[in-house]
Amino acid sequence: MIINGFKIHPELLEEVHAERCVLSECLGACCTGGAWLDVEQLKIIVPQVAAIKPNLPDDRRDPNAWFSAPAADEAAPGGGTIGTNVVADLRRPGETCCVFLLPDRLCALQVTSQQLGLAYPGLKPLFCALYPLQIDEGEIIVDHETEQHFGGATCRRAGATKQPLYRVFKEEMQLLLGAEGYRELEVMSEK
Ligand code: SF4
Ligand code: SF4
To answer: Model's pTM, two decimal places?
Structure first.
């Protein structure tokens, strides 16, 4: 099945007893190792450094410590990828978290985007906004690797009602397919 130029992995059509995870339970486990963004996304963040800084704890306000050096990547927009750096996660002793993950488990890039009135995902890297979905060579897939490394990043809880996995991750699917494409997916999956 192809919608809006994306192939839909069959796993997303499977009916499962699942609901979305809750941030107060998972504590943002997916942010343990930081995130990847491309050069084009970095260009959106840089002009907003002054707005981002006050949202971070005092010891994380140096923008020079926010990102790793760009690595060349011909496939990525702008020709390179950059990782966000990690710091010790005080809410989960012994673990790390992305430099932008706040003690209340919100993302400082997302919080700043809301303050600036930017449409979602705004400054938040698309990689993060889609998680646990990923795009693999034009196909929308569910990531299973991260949950093996970062406990709690399963992103679904047992639920009484059975529903297709794409519906559990409706917001993420809509980011890629748009509202119209999502409706198309619903119609096609029910045939
Ligand atoms: S940028 Fe935000 S959502 Fe992405 S890993 Fe960092 S804190 Fe988490
Ligand atoms: S993506 Fe998964 S691990 Fe990350 S905050 Fe959401 S439910 Fe939690």
So the answer is: 0.92
